[in-house]
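#lab-general

N.A. 3:47 PM
ok so I finally got the sequence cleaned up, no stray characters, all 228 residues accounted for. can someone with queue access submit it? mine expired

B.Y. 3:52 PM
send it over

N.A. 3:53 PM
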Amino acid sequence: MISLEPLGTGVFLPAILIGYEAPGAVSLEHLNAALPPDGAIVRVFQQAGGDCMSYPTAFGALLRLEANRGRDGGPLDVLVRGLKAMSEDPDMETLRQYPVLRALVGTSGRSYESSELDSLARYLERFFDVPAFVSGLEAFVCFAPCDALEFFGGWNVLTCRLPTHDDARLTIYADTPGHHFDESNASELIRDDIRVFDAERLRAIADLGQRLGLPGRPSAFLSWENCE
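B.Y. 4:20 PM
back already:
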């Protein structure tokens, strides 16, 4: 299992994640046994909630916005710039150009109101088709149940492979199942965004969910680096 802690890396987020949120009942040992050792299905240990932090965990396919294109076929640079301005020490000057996003930063751990979720969904619709949001807090928002292929089929998927050189730092935690990467060792990962999100990949994620006793089909999440 490859586990990513995105905060501070500037690499993995913002992204759409297609998969499952892993409840506390699913242990790290179970996840490590079920998830592939590397590839296009990863665990994401996310920091969320603004300066009142929580740590939702999810696994699945990570579709980085920087590696994909919008409805008009162009890059998502404008959206990525706004979402990155929300991270760690928020760039409030840049966020003046993004009033919808500016209103969603520095929330001190509270859940977003339905009006805020609706506003965010309408803003994203400028760039690509999205389902509505049903819940979320700063940096981790859940879309309504949907056919993920209808909205995100054909998007490029992050694929991670472990380095093979002898001095590679393959985890930040000793004696912990899996290979864990954060800002200190993320550069060690071999990664690309060449493969696409398709029916086969969606089935693989759903099969993992069933093996771990998680109900329903995979969900879709929007995630960005949390502010602190």
